[in-house]
């Protein structure tokens, strides 16, 4: 099944080079794959996987091991961001 995967801010460095400008990758994933399994191949440091959204809905850290996606879903991840 196809989903859209988006990484923001410094996490774009973990995307393939040709996707870093747009920060978007189309992925073909197994329907049974939880979020944690989908992002594993990208090598994101766990401490940088801060805000995880599926179709704009926040997914709590403990649910990322079991939450699966549906065809056409958008998975977006932000690192912790400081500012002022």
Keywords:
84 residues; globular; 5-stranded mixed beta sheet; mainly beta; 1 helix
Q: Could you describe the 3D structure shown?
A:
This protein has one helix at 35-39; strands at residues 2-7, 24-28, 51-54, 57-58, 74-78. With 84 residues, the protein is mainly β. The chain has a single domain (2-78), classed as Beta-grasp domain (Ubiquitin-like (UB roll), Roll). Strand 3 (51-54) and strand 4 form a beta hairpin. The protein is globular. The N and C termini lie far apart (40 Å).
Short synopsis of the structure:
This protein is mainly β and 84 residues long. It has one helix spanning 35-39, and strands at 2-7, 24-28, 51-54, 57-58, 74-78.
Globally, the shape reads globular
CATH topology: Ubiquitin-like (UB roll)
Tell me which CATH architecture applies here: Roll
Rounded mean pLDDT score: 95
Query: What count of domains describes the coordinates?
Result: 1
Radius of gyration (Å): 12 Å
Q: How much helical structure, as a percent, in the residues?
A: under 10%
CATH class: Alpha Beta
Strand and helix order: EEHEEE
Could you name the ranges where pLDDT drops below 50 across 5 or more consecutive residues? Answer: none
Instruction: Name the CATH superfamily assignment.
Output: Beta-grasp domain
* Number of DSSP strand runs: 5
Q: Which structural class fits the helix and strand makeup?
A: mainly beta
Largest sheet: 5 strands, mixed
Report the β-strand fraction as a percent range.
25-35%
> How many helix segments?
1
- Give the termini separation: 40 Å
Strand order of the largest sheet: 2-1-5-3-4
